[in-house]
Amino acid sequence: MGNQLPAQAPLAAWQPSTWPIPPSKVDASFIETLKLIFDQSILCEIDNVVEDAHKSNGGLEHRGHVVAIALMCALDATSSYGYGRKNGNQMPPFVQNHFPSAYHPHAADLLKLYRHSLVHSWNLFEAAITPGAEPITKSGGVLSFGLLNFRDALRSAVTDFLDKLKSDPTLHTNTLKRYRDLRNSAKV
Fold first, then answer.
1. Where are the domains of the chain?
2. pTM for the full model?
3. pLDDT tens-digit series, residues 122-144
4. Which of 130, 127, 171 has its CA nearest to residue 148?
């Protein structure tokens, strides 16, 4: 009785100290754990904010800015698993490899015009967002997309990433490293 280890706390997706110990190699169980973490701590949380905004305001017109910032942080976080933690520079290859094709030509602009501007300056200077599901377009030199379209594209990209993780050795190595680093840095 005196030498028993404490029981593992149930997984709380937003608390890496509760995540399972990383496996030695990527397997179906690990991918399911990542899916749960991405869904519960990122994607569903953003969906909850969107739903609350629709209930209280009828749409994202007065909450879209905060949702856009959350989406850029979500892209930064999810892309760091397969492509390393590179101060956002991992985002363009993630977009190129996992987002719907309409986003591919704009991968670098998503980093510079959206992530950097929104996260570091709280504003958009050379780009635009709309509160709906409008597709990504570039017109008159201005890149624009609807927040709901981007949210759906991000969800699709995460699904594609997890699917490719099943067989891509580079994604295996990078993802296990990121997961291990995050879990090991967590304090109980």
1. 26-179
2. 0.91
3. 888 889 999 999 999 999 999 99
4. 130
- Dig out the tokens for 49 from the structure: 């904010």
Three-class secondary structure assignment of the chain: CCCCCCCCCCCCCCCHHHCCCCCCCCCHHHHHHHHHHHHHHHHHHHHHHHHHHHHHHCCCCCCHHHHHHHHHHHHHHHHHHHHCCCCCCCHHHHHHHHCCHHHHHHHHHHHHHHHHHHHHHCCCCCEEEECCCCCCEEECCEEEEEHHHHHHHHHHHHHHHHHHHCCCHHHHHHHHHHHHHHHHHCCC
Work out the average pLDDT over 103-116: 91
Residue 16 CA to residue 109 CA, distance in Å, equals: 31
Question: For residue 14, what are its two tokens?
Answer: 């937003």
| CA pair distance 1, 92, nearest whole angstrom | 52
**Does 8 or 44 have the greater pLDDT score?**
44
Angle 176-113-156 (CA atoms, 0-180°, nearest 5)?
A: 45
CA atoms within 13 Å, Cβ hemisphere of 108: 1
